[in-house]
Design brief:
alpha+beta, Aminopeptidase, two-stranded antiparallel ribbon, two-stranded antiparallel sheet, 2 helices, 4 strands, 25% helix
Length: 89
Amino acid sequence: MVGLFRQQGLKVRHIWGMYVTPEGRGHGAARALMLAAIARASTMPDLEQLTLTVVTTNETARNLYLSLQFKVYGVEPDALKLGDRFFDE
């Protein structure tokens, strides 16, 4: 599953979520979902940029996004908390 969210503000449009079940991984599902989200976003009037975040330790997702021409523009320390652990995005 992938979510595409367009906020009301003109400056912010982003892909807000991506998840592929463990059983579905390694078969191209994530790439297909991302390509579909990008295609859908390209039909939105006045859209100029897509933004997404990824946990820095998720190398598979990071490599996918880089292959789709997304660029790293910064790291947000402790952006997510799962249980007692924090993760950078």
